[in-house]
Design brief:
Layout (H helix, E strand, L loop, with lengths): L3 E9 L3 H19 L2 E6 L4 H7 L5 H9 L2 E6 L9 H13 L4 E7 L17 E7 L3 E10 L7 E7 L2 H18 L4 E6 L7 H13 L6 E6 H10 L6 E4 L1 H14 L7 E5 L5 E5 L16 H13 L3 H17 L13 H14 L2
Parallel strand pairs: 1-2, 1-3, 3-12, 5-10, 8-9, 8-10
Antiparallel strand pairs: 4-5, 4-11, 6-7, 11-12
This protein binds 3-isopropylmalic acid and manganese (II) ion (MN).
Length: 356
Amino acid sequence: MKKKFQIGVVPGDGTGPEVVAEGLKVLKAVAEKAGVGYDLTHYDFGGERYLKTGEILPDSAIQELGQMDAVYLGAIGHPDVKPGILEKGILLNLRFSLDLYINLRPVKLYPGVDTPLKDKGPQHIDFDVVRENTEGLYAGSGGFLKKNTLDEIAVQESINTRKGVERCIRYAFECCRKKNRNKKLTLCGKTNVLTYAFDLWERVFHEVGETYPDIEQDYAHVDAICMWMVKNPEWFDVIVTDNMFGDIITDLGAMIQGGMGIAAGGNINPEGAAIFEPIGGSAPKYTGKNIINPLAAIMAGQMMLTYLEESEAADLVEKAVMKVIQHDMKTMDAGKMGLGTSKVGDLVVKYIRDGE
Ligand code: IPM
Ligand code: MN
């Protein structure tokens, strides 16, 4: 008998629940079509629960989510909760506790989606960013001295372990081989200034690269990458980088692929748990208006299916999304799509059902 996947669902805050609802509609339709079995377990962690009960994310829930085959997440962040509490308490806590050391963020421009880049089309924008997801400046190392005095000192250290760097780089080489496109892996660093952290990254990059003679090794500083992502995005195939640089360049990546309305990502431990999410955040100003674009969440679901090795289902979702973009949507921008949130989900479902 085929495996029945256990999927945890954390809709979270703001527009999270709306877009997750559309993603689950699509999952249901494609699962019926492709014969995928799954059970959903819903969790209401997020700002509302925190404001009501003071609970952020109990250890027992982390454990449970870690046992799931995959977790589907909407968005974390609430306007009435001080920034950092939920982000650190839920999202970063899950990434760290479940050791989700890869943050995989595809930057792909689909036909019919507008990019702000002049003269660039789908043939130019199709790369993956592999962001280290558990170390670097995010590790929480540092502190204050003489806080709230004129002599105050704030230190925030970037932690880079050989193990952490190596497993991330190895995953990126594998990703590049699997993608089988230009077979080029670019290390994004800052070796001219961060001469300890990125010295380690660069050494490990070349060392691991020796076992991937089929993959071209490329290097660019992070500031230059920002320039090339705008000027020559076609140069990139897979980019590997640390946590902070990965955070920054993937927002830029989201913009060149058409905006947060379509950008999805996966927090992955290749040997364990994984969480898939639209990367755009909770968007309070669009909440509850049926105007947010659910395609990012739907594509996060597509990534989840790929991760679960349900490639037929994943292909069906991607094709259906491409049809909606080409035939029905004016833009990827919330409120301007020409369709409401739930209608976009309905159309993806329709194309899945009508598909061959
Ligand atoms: C992201 C977000 C998070 C990050 C925030 C919400 C903590 O920006 O997933 O990119 O910085 O990693
Ligand atoms: Mn970010």
